[in-house]
Amino acid sequence: MDNSGGIRFENEYWKDYPLTEHDLAIDAHDLAVQRTGGEIQGVSVVEEKRENAKITRIEVLNEQGAQAIGKAVGKYITIESEGLKGQNRLVHDELSEILSQELVSLIDFDRVRPHPNLEPTIFVVGLGNWNATADALGPQVLNHLMVTRHLYQEAPPELRKGLRPVCALSPGVLGLTGVQTAEIIKGVVEQVRPDLIIAIDSLAAHHTGRLANTIQLSNTGISPGSGIGKVRMAINQETMKIPVIAIGVPTVVHAITIVNNAMEEMLKGEIFSKVERERFRHIQEDEKKRMVGNILGPFMGNLVVSPKGVDELILNVGRIIAGGINIALHPDITPENISLYL
Amino acid sequence: MDNSGGIRFENEYWKDYPLTEHDLAIDAHDLAVQRTGGEIQGVSVVEEKRENAKITRIEVLNEQGAQAIGKAVGKYITIESEGLKGQNRLVHDELSEILSQELVSLIDFDRVRPHPNLEPTIFVVGLGNWNATADALGPQVLNHLMVTRHLYQEAPPELRKGLRPVCALSPGVLGLTGVQTAEIIKGVVEQVRPDLIIAIDSLAAHHTGRLANTIQLSNTGISPGSGIGKVRMAINQETMKIPVIAIGVPTVVHAITIVNNAMEEMLKGEIFSKVERERFRHIQEDEKKRMVGNILGPFMGNLVVSPKGVDELILNVGRIIAGGINIALHPDITPENISLYL
Amino acid sequence: MDNSGGIRFENEYWKDYPLTEHDLAIDAHDLAVQRTGGEIQGVSVVEEKRENAKITRIEVLNEQGAQAIGKAVGKYITIESEGLKGQNRLVHDELSEILSQELVSLIDFDRVRPHPNLEPTIFVVGLGNWNATADALGPQVLNHLMVTRHLYQEAPPELRKGLRPVCALSPGVLGLTGVQTAEIIKGVVEQVRPDLIIAIDSLAAHHTGRLANTIQLSNTGISPGSGIGKVRMAINQETMKIPVIAIGVPTVVHAITIVNNAMEEMLKGEIFSKVERERFRHIQEDEKKRMVGNILGPFMGNLVVSPKGVDELILNVGRIIAGGINIALHPDITPENISLYL
Amino acid sequence: MDNSGGIRFENEYWKDYPLTEHDLAIDAHDLAVQRTGGEIQGVSVVEEKRENAKITRIEVLNEQGAQAIGKAVGKYITIESEGLKGQNRLVHDELSEILSQELVSLIDFDRVRPHPNLEPTIFVVGLGNWNATADALGPQVLNHLMVTRHLYQEAPPELRKGLRPVCALSPGVLGLTGVQTAEIIKGVVEQVRPDLIIAIDSLAAHHTGRLANTIQLSNTGISPGSGIGKVRMAINQETMKIPVIAIGVPTVVHAITIVNNAMEEMLKGEIFSKVERERFRHIQEDEKKRMVGNILGPFMGNLVVSPKGVDELILNVGRIIAGGINIALHPDITPENISLYL
Question: Which of D85, D94, D340 to substitute to test the interface with B, most B CBs within 10 Å?
Answer without folding.
Answer: D340
